[in-house]
Amino acid sequence: MNESTLAQVDANTAIDRTTHLTDLADLAWFEVDSERNIVAMSPALEQLTGFRAEDVLGRSCLTAIRCNECLKGCGVFRNGRVRRAQLRIYRSDGTELEVYKSGQVLKDETGAVTGAVEVIEVAGGDKSRAAASSTELSSLLSGLGREFVTADDQMQVLAFSTALPALLGLTEDELVGRPLTDLFRGELFEEEGAVSRAVLSGERREGWRAFLLAAEGQEIPVSLSVGPVDPSDTCGGLDARVVVMIRPEDVEEREAPAFEGIVSRSASMQRIFRIIELLRHNDSTVLITGESGTGKELVAQALHNTSHRSDGPFIAVNCAAIPSELLESELFGHVRGAFTGAVRDRSGRFELADGGTLFLDEIGDLALGLQAKILRFLQEHTFERVGDTRTRRVDVRVIAATHVDLVRAVAERRFREDLYYRLRVVPVELPPLRERREDLELLIRVFLERIGRERGRALRLAPSASRALLTYRWPGNVRELQNALEYATTVCEGQTIHTRDLPSEVGRYGGDRVSAATVAGPVDAAGSTGSAGERPVEDAPISGRDLSGRGLSPSEISEAEKILAELEAARYHRGQAAERLGMSRTTLWRKMKEYRL
Could you tell me the pTM of the whole model? Predict the structure, then answer.
């Protein structure tokens, strides 16, 4: 199969993504990928330019649209949208042709630009045909899953894509003049809203999550890109100031493998999940150990939620956060007059947890005197309030946790040996994040989506930022990862998080990272090969050799490995790699997306 045939297959695949492109066969249009290579071309454009699709598919758009203005830079990719830009192009026979070009970039579910669709119309041609071009481009975009609306400086609707009224359950007349605040839930388009102020000041805003308000109260989750309209672009005589590109999101969110809210696919965490399941009908005391930030309280909560005590209270106490002189009263309560300031009787955490679970976090920091009282409770389930002589009994299961090495603490006589063994009936040791790196990509995705929902953003990671996150050692474990992503979403000004948006220690030089070769999971790779310790993170390539767990067949894994080998040999120059593989750049790009390389 030759290159042009492969390109034609890719073009057919692109066309199949729409539902009604065949109805627009007389429209001169073409679609390009993110590298400006043609992946689809209509027969009308072939006739207009004189270039055959089989000769230009898989090649730069300049091979079909030969234009001096386009050589200076593509306005569609630069601005995200072009409407009836006047150009002079050269046909295959060398004759000149005055045309208008309209276009719109296309984005995937992450907000990454995947290409553009563009329409060519002859200048001075059939006026009815020219008037219809906007409608046809609108239909073409709708077929590719995009809708748009333009508005004036009062944020009232002026024009819209042809499929939008039906999507909203409104007539065209009902939609014209309607405030954008009636179409989108929240304050994005209010007079002092973040998007309104920015766009009217000439700025663009990309990747914002929102809900499109349809008839009968239905809310459609969408991703928005909003930008100002060039005053010189009259948009068909309408005084438009704002254009909103709307991409409906997948209603079915990708399910992340989770157990009681703990996201993980690693074998070490799966073993812990099985232990929790086995303790479902058991009240044994559990000692959870692990570094700070590994999720000890989440495991304690899971132990409670899956037990027969789940209807009872879950009370958590951080023993390191309360001064030792106050901790006894906090745990066991006190009676009036027990000490200065004790003006009334007060229940402690043990009483509040009656019928449920008491989680003693950082128990390794307990003073020796309190350790003896905790030991007595574990043995007899009784205690006295501070200043009281009455013995009380409660039904409480104790779960303890610490990041301290208790074996060493026992040896140094900082922790009672009898309490250690009384707590350690069922030991659970949580692995640090650096030892379960197969969870990294999953956690990054889940946290980014969760934080994005909370802040109304739909952000994506640049390949360099992905590599930085995946190669950093994460001494602060899952908590540090979550904090890093919250920081990044706060400082990121666009739709894409770059390395510069991450905390400085994540993307720094030096050895506080693991080798890129140990990272599992698909990562967008770029850059040349070399030692990760000698170069910044954004230059470190990720081979992605671990292809297991991606749902690929043996033949697909074999092909993916071959593609990876050629990409690495070509230092990720896609043109050279495609030539080595005997396929077009478009086919290579599609397979990289398909295999998540």
Answer: 0.53
